[in-house]
Amino acid sequence: MIPERFINASVIAGLLAVPLWALMADEIFTITLTTRAVILALAAVGLNIALGMGGLVSFGHAVFFGIGGYAMGILAFHAQTFAPLELGPLTIEGTKSMPVIWLVATVASALTALVIGLLSLRTTGVHFIMITLAFGQLFFYFTISWSAYGGEDGLSIYVRNSFPDLNTLVPIQFLGLCFAALCLALLLQWRLRNSAFGLALNAARQTPQRVETVGLNPMRLKLLAFVISGAITGLAGALFADLNRFVSPTMFSWQLSGELIILIIIGGVGRLMGPVIGAAIFVTLEHWLGGLTDFWHIWLGVILLVIVLFGRGGVIGLLTGKEGPHV
Amino acid sequence: MSEPVLATHGLMKSFGALIATDNVSIDLHPGEIHAIIGPNGAGKSTLIGQISGSLASDAGRIELLGQDVTRLRTAARAQAGLGRTFQISALAMEDSVFENVLLGAVAATSGAWSLFMPVARKVALTERAMQALDRVGLAYAKDTRCADLSHGQRRQLEVAVALTLAPKAFLMDEPMAGLGAEGSRNLTGFLDGLRSEAPILLVEHDMDAVFALADRISVLVYGRVIATGTVEDIRASDAVREAYLGESA
User: Fold this and answer.
1) CB–CB of B91 and A207 under 8 A?
2) Do B106 and A196 touch (CB under 8 A)?
3) CA-CA distance, A35 to A240, in Å (whole number)?
4) A90 — contact with chain B (CB < 8 Å)?
5) At the topology level of CATH, where does B1-81+167-249 sit?
6) N or C: which end of chain A has fewer CB within 10 A?
7) 3-state SS class at A54
8) ipTM of the complex
């Protein structure tokens, strides 16, 4: 069986090789596809911290993806219309600066995750799944009726936002930014997993009563994991909006929450590279099969079934021959 | 007599019409092992739950080192110095033996909010964890996945996790349950030495172990303490014989 370290290194190498090849072959669309996969992977890395490490099956992670998207959309919209955002006595100028937008997206998502977590973490199991789903629907229907920012039609941003010293309109440069964000998130998850916090969180997932008995509060551990998780998915949402230069309520849809979970299950729950492998497979299928048939989700479903039935650790579980953490 | 480390005063708990804990007042003094025995359904598990904090009491008071902990949550009682072991092991089964004791060391030094530093590099914690494993004689299995441990090894690990907390009082729920004769003898010997570190409130079915270890025994029947005394007192008590020992002896 293949050691997980080797798989991890291969995945990173593959993520670098594909765009380099595409650049040389002048396959711009492949670069865009890779960017899409990298951003979805980033969103799923966020979810994997809650799901894989904390055992929190959040069916509402689209909330954070959407908040990141709307943070970008709203700030860029006010910048392109030159009309500042009036919030009571507060006047906020719009901005086209990516670093500022990312900061707003992550902070807003983290705060939302804190509130949703405080309310949802009182429940476990199916109840937790349902309450997070309900929060997702809440945001979805709110943005549909939020006419100031396009309502159901969403919001178009005409020019991609800017990053100091880079031309973000060049696909490979924007991909570079997304790739860096993904690597940072993976590094963060890796450090978390090996830290004392990671150890305690891992125990809280398996046996909350033990964690309490040694004097720790399992809910607080899970809450922090949920907040970090939401912040990362929020950042991915801001990048996704910038990739498409478009924001709409579909970023809040439950289908997206479900897709993020599916990505992780395909790749391997709780595995560092699980979301990355899952996103790569997902985007490849979406592109190749999606070109052949409108019903490509059927084949995604078949793959999911095979993995759930025969390999409990996803692709990484199959390759390493080791089951992942149970959720 | 010295101040008790752990004491309950008039503890009550009922589930509907069933009174599971009826006016229980027991105490635990420094250096002693106080065993609680009683037939099945006597309310031992309920009492353990109330003392550890997983069950709320209807009435009465629980004191730990003179501090009223009746309203504290489980985690706060652990921080105040209560070291509990579980009857049915509550271990992180996917983790290694070492990771399980390391959790105790992390919690005892309030280090769980360290997010980025690899815990394996924190020497003070790893040493504390290893020491606890050494003491229960489980160091050889430190890299074994907890799920692969034998029943007896899990009992040892339960005790090791409690040791990492360096508690002021141990609360042990049937630590001998399911151990073979030899395992039971070994653990009896170990607990015998442990009492000088911190007193032990021992709920146990294994009568040989109880009679060998206990400084005092309380007999719980239908939620009430019907007798408290030394091993000789309890053996001699007619009420106990009738209510409890008489059933099997």
Assistant:
1) yes
2) yes
3) 9
4) no
5) Rossmann fold (3.40.50)
6) N
7) coil
8) 0.91
Pairing of strands B216-221, B200-203: unpaired
Instruction: For residue B65, give both structure tokens.
Output: 């080192």
Query: Token digits for B147?
Result: 């799920």
pTM above 0.90, yes or no: yes
B99 in A contact zone (CB under 8 Å): yes
Contacts of B49 in chain A (CB under 8 A): none
Per-residue pLDDT tens over the stretch B31-64:
999 999 988 888 999 999 999 999 999 999 999 9
Q: What DSSP state is assigned to residue B18?
A: E
> Nearest CB to B106: which of A200, A206, A217?
A200
Cβ atoms of residues B216 and B34 within 8 Å: yes
Structural domains present in chain A = 4-320 (1.10.3470)
| A29 residue type, one letter | F
Instruction: Report the distance separating Cα A1 and Cα A319, nearest Å.
Output: 6
Rounded Cα gap, residues A35 and A239, in angstroms: 9
Indicate the domain borders of chain B.
1-81+167-249, 93-166
Let me know: does B99 contact A199? Beta carbons within 8 Å. yes
B172 touches chain A (CB under 8 A): no
Write the pLDDT tens digit of every residue in B160-171: 999 999 999 999
